[in-house]
Specification:
mainly alpha; 9 helices; single chain; about 5% strand; globular; about 70% helix
Length: about 220
């Protein structure tokens, strides 16, 4: 695996945290992989003290799991995680729509459409596609102006990126995601809260189905 050595005035702990978490999200580090402090320390260009602090933080957030006398392992995506995250995602996305509709402008929608067009251009790269997916949803959240909601969405988006790359392995999920995003945009243009919430709900439900189907398929092949 490749990491970026620290080049800027960022805390060593935060640098390690960001690099390792992104490697997990993008499946550069696979589920169940063991992490070795010496190896990580050398690749990140930092000492073990801030590295351990980063690993502890990642474990607190559920990305890693320590096993006594065995080491630190990357967590597995399990059905319970998917259900919990998508339940929260569905509730928060519905709130985003409710808060957004009264204040959305044509310029906001134009920016959302620009993000959509960029996502269309990344259909051949799952990592880039799912990152654009995050931008699409976070743009709507940020337009609400609700700082706490935005922070919750950021946290959930990291989990969704991890799940989402798995979901893209299912048949036609990329095309369906684009179709669902287009439907959301069309309802936002109408300023119809209920229809926009319904379009968002269907998007979340289809994402859940795709992620769970991919997990089931992986279990059967392992």
């Amino acid at each position: 695996m490749e990491f970026t050595k620290i080049q800027q005035p960022q805390s060593f702990r935060d640098h390690a945290y960001d690099e390792i978490k992104n490697a997990i999200i993008n499946h550069v580090i696979a589920q169940g992989d063991v992490l070795y402090e010496r190896d990580l320390s050398e690749k990140l260009g930092i000492s073990r003290t801030p590295l351990r602090a980063a690993l502890q933080l990642l474990e607190m957030e559920g990305w890693l799991k320590s096993v006594p006398r065995k080491g630190v392992f990357v967590s597995h995506i399990v059905e319970k995680d998917v259900e919990e995250v998508l339940q929260l995602r569905g509730a928060n996305e519905a709130l985003v729509v409710e808060l957004l509709i009264p204040k959305i402008t044509d310029a906001h929608i134009e920016r959302l459409e620009e993000i959509f067009v960029q996502q269309e251009k990344h259909t051949g790269n799952n990592q880039s596609f799912i990152l654009m997916d995050k931008d699409f949803h976070m743009h709507m959240a940020e337009l609400t102006g609700n700082d706490r909601l935005i922070q919750l969405m950021h946290t959930l988006s990291d989990q969704m990126r991890w799940f989402g790359i798995v979901a893209l392995d299912t048949t036609d999920r990329v095309e369906r995601t684009l179709k669902e995003h287009r439907a959301i945009i069309e309802q936002l243009k109408k300023r119809d809260v209920e229809l926009a919430k319904q379009a968002m709900h269907e998007h979340i439900i289809h994402t859940r189905t795709a992620v769970l189907a991919s997990l089931k398929s992986k279990k059967e092949t392992d």
